[in-house]
């Protein structure tokens, strides 16, 4: 079904299910908040951005402006800062693709330099922690002018970041990890609750792929250390119940260290959206 209202609700539900899943090591969930960002902030963002999500499902172009609009709309409804910026970067092209029955890889490849400028402008309101791409410093006021002058597309910017940024890599790889998450969650949901399916998939992905947000905040070595710890936690497990105490300990460790795997959570949201569009039901 490619009805824009249905697709927008799939995106909303994906965001709600992700933040509600627990225990999800290091991130906000129904069990704990961060000092300035709470569970309710994530819920408000997921609900409040509906008009932009629906508009994305009706659109074939304008990904940059839609990402910008989603970031603005999110902040109109909550005071917790950046809750879903990375998720919007994934969800907007996925919504556009589902609504127009086009491959998401085609949507992102067709982005323009105007999309790139809108994407840069979104950072000024979302206050996102990110490594600047070569030649285009997010902190430089003239970067937008240079992007337009050089005709640099948003897809081009993502290619420059793809080797160290999970979200950018999704754009370049055809949303490979997003689709992997969709398949994994769907498969696990046949034999366990949706909550456990999400947490198990989150842990598996974190174990296999160092998180961008942690790398940007603490460095590459720390992101690898967290992934190795996740691998130890899930080693040999068949379900969440058998490792729940270890997961809680891992969660408490990451919370103490303020090492939250935010990019991993964003890709889980993208995977949930794809799974819901395909027919997954809670």
Question: What is the compact description of this entry?
Answer:
The chain has 282 residues and is mainly α. It has helices at 4-20, 39-48, 50-57, 63-77, 85-100, 104-109, 113-126, 143-150, 154-161, 166-173, 176-188, 194-208, 212-218, 220-234, 244-257, 262-278.
Query: How would you sum up the global shape?
Result: globular
At the fold tier of CATH, the topology name is Triphosphoribosyl-dephospho-CoA protein
Count of distinct strands: 0
Q: How much helix, percentage-wise, in residues?
A: 55-70%
How many independent structural domains?
A: 1
What is the CA–CA distance across the termini? 18 Å
As residue ranges, the low-confidence spans are none
Under CATH at level 1, the class stands as: Mainly Alpha
Description:
This protein is mainly alpha-helical. It contains 16 helices and no strands. Helix 5 (85-100) runs parallel beside helix 16 (262-278) and helix 14 packs antiparallel against helix 15 (244-257).
What is the secondary structure topology, with strand pairs?
Blueprint (H helix, E strand, L loop, with lengths): L3 H17 L18 H10 L1 H8 L5 H15 L7 H16 L3 H6 L3 H14 L16 H8 L3 H8 L4 H8 L2 H13 L5 H15 L3 H7 L1 H15 L9 H14 L4 H17 L4
Helix pairs in contact: 1-2, 1-3, 1-5, 1-16, 2-4, 3-4, 3-5, 4-5, 4-7, 5-16, 7-8, 9-10, 11-12, 11-16, 12-14, 12-16, 13-14, 14-15
List the keywords.
Triphosphoribosyl-dephospho-CoA protein, about 280 residues, mainly alpha, about 70% helix
């Amino acid at each position: 079904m490619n009805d824009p209202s249905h697709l927008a609700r799939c995106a909303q539900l994906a965001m709600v299910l992700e933040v509600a899943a627990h225990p999800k090591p290091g991130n906000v969930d129904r069990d704990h908040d961060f000092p300035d960002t709470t569970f309710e902030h994530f819920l408000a963002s997921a609900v409040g951005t509906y008009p932009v999500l629906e508009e994305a499902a009706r659109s074939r172009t304008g990904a940059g402006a839609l990402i910008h609009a989603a970031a603005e709309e999110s902040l109109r409804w909550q005071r917790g800062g950046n809750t879903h910026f990375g998720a919007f970067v994934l969800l907007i092209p996925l919504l556009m693709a589902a609504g127009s029955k086009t491959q998401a890889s085609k949507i992102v490849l067709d982005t323009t330099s105007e999309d790139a400028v809108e994407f840069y402008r979104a950072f000024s309101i979302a206050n996102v922690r990110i490594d600047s791409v070569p030649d285009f410093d997010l902190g430089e006021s003239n970067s937008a002018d240079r992007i337009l002058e050089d005709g640099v597309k948003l897809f081009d910017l993502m290619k420059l970041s793809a080797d160290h940024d999970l979200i950018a890599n999704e754009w370049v790889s055809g949303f490979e990890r997003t689709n992997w998450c969709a398949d994994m969650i769907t498969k696990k949901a046949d034999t366990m609750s949706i909550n456990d399916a999400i947490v198990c998939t989150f842990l598996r992905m974190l174990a296999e792929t160092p998180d961008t947000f942690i790398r940007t905040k603490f460095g590459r070595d720390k992101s690898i250390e967290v992934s190795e710890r996740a691998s130890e936690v899930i080693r040999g497990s068949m379900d969440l119940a058998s490792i729940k105490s270890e997961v809680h300990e891992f969660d408490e460790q990451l919370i103490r260290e303020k090492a939250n795997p935010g990019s991993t959570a964003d890709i889980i949201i993208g995977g949930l959206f794809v799974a819901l569009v395909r027919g997954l039901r809670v």
